[in-house]
Design brief:
With 285 residues, the chain is an alpha/beta fold. The chain has 13 helices and 7 strands. The strands form 2 sheets. The chain has a 5-stranded parallel sheet. Strands 6-7 form a two-stranded parallel ribbon.
Length: 285
């Protein structure tokens, strides 16, 4: 069998291979979308470099584009972007004519162009088979419930934290969605600051506490310029006894990240800014 049920080692193996040497084409079939995002997060800086220009990276949603124009643009040498990374979303919806054109493009092997295909449904088209033969076609299925604890620990490790079995169980009782788990782990990592371990008490304090949730409601309200909501939440926090220093530090961190992101807009790609600020792409907007 070419594929096996998704487990921790498979994703780490793909990421490790990309870091050692990026290829010119990949086809990722992922029921969840989470694994694809992690692979893209790894591939972009490795293939394009840390200072890639804006026009070096494009995401295309099938069928909302003219393929001939895209391929012609990719063949055109850019003064600003020697390398190009093009992501094709919903790749299982490519028609026969598009598949033939893309297959011909891939076989020519343009060394400075990488095509990344993504589908949430398994497909048997020629592009998928081509990538499988090249060793760059991967299928990721939704993890079994029994494997979810491994993914929680993987996410915690990515944030440079540890998390015990009881804390994992408590977290999984709240959600088993991979994207939501990643977001909760990120919140917990900020919440415990310099502590290395995420505990049951931390999860109870943040995820099962209206007061702790309000910190993020406050920064969201500030970000969306909802003055009335922000002031109301702030008043609730103070009335419930939340430390002023904690509120202040969280607001300052949030505003500092926005300031940096805006100041880097003309000199760094979004992916570089996300990496430098430690922000996952799903939270970027």
């Amino acid at each position: 069998r070419i594929f096996r049920r998704t487990d921790l080692l498979q994703l780490d193996d793909v990421i490790s291979k990309i870091k050692k040497k990026s290829e010119l084409s990949y086809f990722i079939v992922d029921e969840t979308g989470f694994f694809f995002d992690e692979i893209l997060l790894t591939l972009q800086p490795v293939f394009l470099g840390k200072s890639a220009a804006k026009d070096s990276y494009a995401v295309l949603h099938i069928p909302d584009f003219n393929l001939d124009e895209i391929l012609e643009a990719l063949r055109t040498v850019s003064l600003f972007s020697p390398k190009r990374l093009c992501v094709f979303k919903n790749a299982d919806q490519l028609n026969a004519a598009q598949i033939e054109k893309l297959a011909g493009f891939l076989k020519k092997g343009f060394k400075d162009i990488c095509l990344l295909f993504f589908s949430q449904k398994k497909t048997k088209n020629k592009l998928f088979k081509y990538c499988v033969e090249k060793g760059t076609g991967f299928e990721f299925k939704k993890p079994y419930e029994s494997k979810m604890s491994y993914w929680v620990q993987w996410m915690a490790k990515k944030e440079k934290k540890t998390i015990g079995p009881k804390a994992v169980k408590l977290l999984l009782a709240k959600t088993q969605d991979l994207f939501q788990l990643a977001r909760e782990i990120e919140k917990l990592s900020l919440y415990i600051a310099e502590s290395e371990e995420i505990t049951e008490a931390d999860i109870q304090g943040l995820l099962y506490s209206t007061r702790a949730h309000s910190i993020f409601e406050l920064t969201d309200a500030i970000g969306y310029r909802k003055k009335r909501v922000a002031l109301t939440v702030l008043e609730q926090l103070l009335n419930e006894g939340e430390a002023e220093v904690f509120i202040f530090s969280m607001i300052m961190r949030y505003l500092r990240n926005i300031w940096k992101a805006v100041s880097w807009k003309e000199t760094k790609s979004e992916r570089d800014a996300q990496t430098l600020l430690g922000i996952h792409p799903m939270f970027w907007d």
